[in-house]
Amino acid sequence: MRIIRDYQFVEAQDRGASAAIGNFDGVHIGHRSVIELARKAVPDAPLGIITFEPHPREYFAPKSPPFRLMRRGARGHRLEKLGVEKLYELNFNAALAGLTPKEFARNVLAEGLGVAHVVVGADFCFGKGRAGNAEDLVRFGREMGFGVTVAPLLEKSENTVSSTAIRTALSEGRPRDATAMLGHWHRIEGAVIGGEQRGRDLGFPTANMSIEGLHPPAFGVYAVLVDVLDGPHRGSYRGAASLGVRPMFGGEVPNIETYLFDFSGDLYGATLSVGLVDYLRPEMEFESLDALIAQMDGDCARARDILGAL
């Protein structure tokens, strides 16, 4: 998969795609249906995704609470697995935000990316002040030489799939429900960073990762599936992870600490993808380290049973 970040400098090989437009946070099953429309619209064209970094919501409200389900790298990995060939991950800045709807259609889609076809949702808005809508894009496409498919909105119900519903499920400690909407395990991906090595002292060495910028799932302990994406220990593992602020030790900044079963090695600097399978229990404080260790033994035993049944 090729990643293109500037619509003003696009090579000939990266033009002519049939592309879905959106943020694709989580790449859930609703997103996948839109991607399939793009795949089928022009079967001989490269399959593309047009999205933006930073997320426009982050750009316009930088102090808003973290809401993203995925960082850009994790989203790219998921899209590549779906067969996306061209990821137009456009820099969202003042110049792009200031384009009128017609300028966006002409400068970005028609002349810049040279798309053959685009797919958008029926509620799609674009251009300065979100002044353009899907009907405008259909008209611009006819004028400028690219096709447009408008995907109908799904009727809202208690089973409606959305990034908001997935965030709610994760916040409530329901990762299996999030998985059903995502079509894959909810994964936290990032580099292993240095920690205080308390886990090692307790007999449970962990790989520590930041969750900065991500929507925080319910704090507590999870059964997890772990992919080490690079380095000498690259591969798939099972484990248990503690996500939160570590109240036993007076932590303040939330992170995720993952213990890999039957593993020995140094993971510092490696990139991990930690899939949340089941929520085992909330964070809690213990009267002693011995009580904490006994609970961790029990957590790991339970996680092994859950993961062994997959």
Question: Which CATH top level class of the largest domain fits?
Answer: Alpha Beta
What is the N-to-C order of secondary-structure elements (H for helix, E for strand)? EEHEHHEHHEEEHEHHEHEEEEEH
Q: Going by CATH, what is the homologous superfamily of the largest domain?
A: HUPs
**Low-pLDDT sequence parts:** none
**Strand order in the sheet with the most strands:** 1-4-3-2-5-8
Based on CA inertia axes, which overall geometry fits?
elongated
What does this structure look like?
With 310 residues, the protein is of the alpha/beta class. It has two domains: 2-151, 3-Layer(aba) Sandwich (Rossmann fold), CATH 3.40.50.620; 163-308, Elongation Factor Tu (Ef-tu), domain 3, CATH 2.40.30.30. It is 31% helix and 26% strand. It contains ten helices and 14 strands. The protein has helices at 29-41, 56-60, 72-81, 94-97, 101-113, 134-144, 163-171, 175-182, 198-201, 289-308, and strands at 2-4, 18-21, 47-53, 86-91, 117-121, 125-126, 132-133, 147-151, 186-191, 207-210, 220-228, 235-244, 255-260, 271-282. The strands form three sheets. The chain has a six-stranded parallel β-sheet with strand order 1-4-3-2-5-8, sandwiched between helices. A six-stranded antiparallel β-sheet has the order 9-14-11-12-13-10. A hairpin with a 5-residue loop joins strand 6 (125-126) and strand 7. The chain is elongated and about 70 Å long. It starts with a strand and ends with a helix. The model has no long low-confidence stretch (mean pLDDT 93).
